[in-house]
Design brief:
By secondary structure, this protein is mainly β. Helix content is 13%, strand content 59%. The strands form two sheets. It has a 20-stranded mixed beta sheet that branches. The protein has a 17-stranded antiparallel beta sheet that branches. Strand 14 (287-299) and strand 15 (302-315) form a beta hairpin. It is elongated, with a radius of gyration of 40 Å. It starts with 6 loop residues before the first helix and ends in a 7-residue tail after the last helix.
Length: 607
């Protein structure tokens, strides 16, 4: 016979006690969870994490305006941005909203770790930055903050900019990001696709992107004290198809930081390109194919117009880019000046070793121009030398034996030209040899230093002198061709076969002075001076001429069928001065030097 209560009656108090315990624990658990949710949402909205990062390093910032998080679900953020600064670049990514799975445990290890990141309304830009101020010397942190974003999806990409170029349109992408504050940046953009968007540079419209794809990997390891990166690797693949508008933006880009600007316009066309980059270098498979309508380059009063095309490709480690303009028309205020069938500039790039910066050389081909009627020069220099007949052609040749050491020269050559100089009828041929490497555009001024000018087969008849078969060569050590108004100014050295030009100049009014008769026999003259030639005439200053037993110095002005010359000559032991002016001629033998210097101090033509 049993004395105890039934088992069910003994267990009932225990069950009731457990239920009462759960009823007491559950509210506390729910309360703790609510407090926890409130706490993390408060911390999420007061900038706790971004503040910690900001104190750790000024180079990396994460910010957002508001957010909420129903843990363990995804965190939701509004107006999210990541800013990163290295030694030379500042970049930032912004998104209107971000959703991500974030690890709370990783935060305890000083890591912002997230996956399944979805960003919408994305805008990103990068720009060169001024050098960083030298930071206070301190050892790198042993446990720096890290930002680890995996499985990032970029939805509704609206703007991408690498100053000064900006893309506005639609796009999407995916990738990952790993930042070690102040030490390392690793970006893996697995895929980016853009389409049907505008390209702009400042306020200028560049064109429309029809399709752009990209995949990029960037890894930068920064020195602890903020110096230049000690390791930087960039790999990427890009493909683009785009329509380009008026090419005025190209002139603006080439003119940045320079004065005066380059004036380019028109030239709309298409671009189709693929670019493959490995460790910062272009590699095989890269290519570009582009072409467009006639573009226009303004050079003072002159305009150059030509349809254009660009073709380029990488073969092995060698790259080649060809810029072709055909046909090229040079026009001025008085109509077309010249037509060149083709101008082609070819750039060659070859690295000495895979790690070196490629050496870039170039070659230039200028096809022989159509003959130019030189009478069109009368609009600019007709008061100095009036052309009555004659034609000229322009051609470019590359005499180099190496792709890296181009020796491009431009040749302008005339047939037999007939004209009038200071009232004297002159026949002759001219050839100009220009070193293209030294040609520079400086606004409305064209620098032509190093140009060689050869004149031969010269014939002329003056009142007292006959010239036949004369020749001379000029080397323009410094030459500037002003395009508006047209004027050539140059320092020169020259060699003359004989004294025929001096004799012609000195015999416009009278026979050659007796004391200068040795000039008739002198050969191989060497001359230096400064020349200015334009619509106002020809001026020679600082003229110095030497031949065997003869020395001369002086100045010369010719314009509108008149000549004014002042010369001091030494021949043997005799020194004499002579002045030629319209309607008169004066020879001074006594006190020649003093008289010459007095006349030299006065403007030409002043009695």
């Amino acid at each position: 016979m049993s004395n105890g209560a039934p088992p069910s009656s003994r267990e009932a108090p225990k069950a009731r006690a457990r239920r009462r315990g759960w009823r007491r624990v559950l509210p506390w658990t729910l309360g703790a969870f609510v407090v926890f949710e409130v706490l993390i949402n408060v911390l999420l909205n007061v900038g706790f994490v971004s503040g910690l990062l900001k104190r750790e390093t000024e180079r990396t910032r994460i910010e957002w305006s508001s957010g909420w998080w129903l843990w363990p679900g995804p965190v939701h953020l509004r107006d999210f941005s990541v800013l990163q600064r290295d030694a030379a670049t500042l970049w930032q990514v912004k998104a209107e909203s971000v959703r991500a799975q974030v690890s709370l445990v990783q935060l305890l290890s000083r890591r912002v770790s997230a996956h399944q990141v979805v960003a919408q309304g994305v805008r990103a830009w990068a720009r060169p930055a001024p050098p960083l101020e030298q930071p206070v010397t301190r050892p790198p942190s042993e446990h720096p903050w890290q930002i680890i974003l995996r499985g990032v999806e970029l939805e509704d990409v609206r703007e991408l900019a690498w100053e000064p170029v900006r893309y506005l349109g639609t796009g999407n992408g995916r990738g990952s990001l790993h930042v070690v504050a102040g030490q390392r940046l690793n970006v893996d953009l697995e895929a980016l696709r853009l389409g049907d968007g505008l390209l702009e540079m400042g306020e200028r419209r560049m064109g429309r992107v029809k399709e752009l794809t990209a995949a990029v990997k960037l890894d930068i390891l920064q020195r602890p004290l903020g110096d230049e990166p000690r390791h930087k690797r960039f790999d990427g693949t890009f493909g683009v198809k785009a329509d380009v508008d008026d090419l005025g933006w190209v002139g603006a880009l080439l003119s940045r930081g320079k004065e005066p600007p380059i004036h380019l316009s028109q030239g709309a066309g298409q671009v189709d390109a693929e670019v493959h980059v490995r460790d910062g270098h272009l590699v095989e498979g890269s290519r570009v194919d582009a072409s467009g309508a006639a573009l226009e380059l303004k050079l003072g009063p002159a305009r150059v117009r030509a349809p254009w095309s660009v073709k380029g490709a990488m073969t092995g480690t060698e790259g080649q880019l060809q810029l072709r303009f055909a046909p090229v028309h040079l026009e001025g205020d008085h109509g077309r000046v010249m037509e060149i069938p083709e101008v082609q500039l070819t750039l060659h790039g070859t690295p000495s070793t895979p790690s070196d910066t490629p050496r870039v050389g170039y070659s230039l081909h200028v096809a022989k121009s159509r003959p130019v009627d030189l009478k069109m020069l009368n609009a600019w220099i007709g008061n100095t030398f009036h052309v009555e007949s004659g034609h000229a052609t322009l051609e470019g040749t590359d005499t180099s034996t190496s792709k890296q050491d181009s020796q491009v020269r431009l040749h302008a050559e005339t047939n037999l030209v007939e004209g009038k100089w200071s009232g004297i009828r002159v026949l002759g041929k001219t050839r100009a040899d220009v070193d293209a490497r030294r040609v520079q555009f400086q606004g409305k001024v064209l620098a032509l230093d190093g140009t060689r000018l050869d004149i031969d087969h010269v014939s002329a008849d003056t009142k007292y002198q006959q010239i036949r078969g004369w020749s001379g060569s000029f080397h323009l050590t410094r030459a500037r061709l002003n395009l508006e108004p047209v004027e050539l100014e140059a320092d020169f050295t020259a060699t003359f076969a004989n004294s025929a030009p001096f004799v012609a100049m000195l015999t416009t009014e009278k026979k050659l002075p007796r004391f200068l008769s040795p000039m008739l026999e002198a050969r191989d003259w060497r001359i230096t001076g400064h020349a200015r030639m334009g619509d106002a005439g020809l001026q020679l200053r600082g003229l110095q001429a030497k031949a065997d037993g003869l020395e001369m110095e002086g100045r010369l002005d010719t314009a509108r069928d008149s000549t004014h010359a002042l010369l001091l000559a030494k021949t043997g032991g005799l020194t004499g001065a002579v002045e030629i002016a319209p309607g008169r001629s004066q020879v001074q033998l006594k006190g020649a030097r003093r008289w010459y210097e007095q006349r030299l101090a006065q403007p030409p033509g002043q009695d």
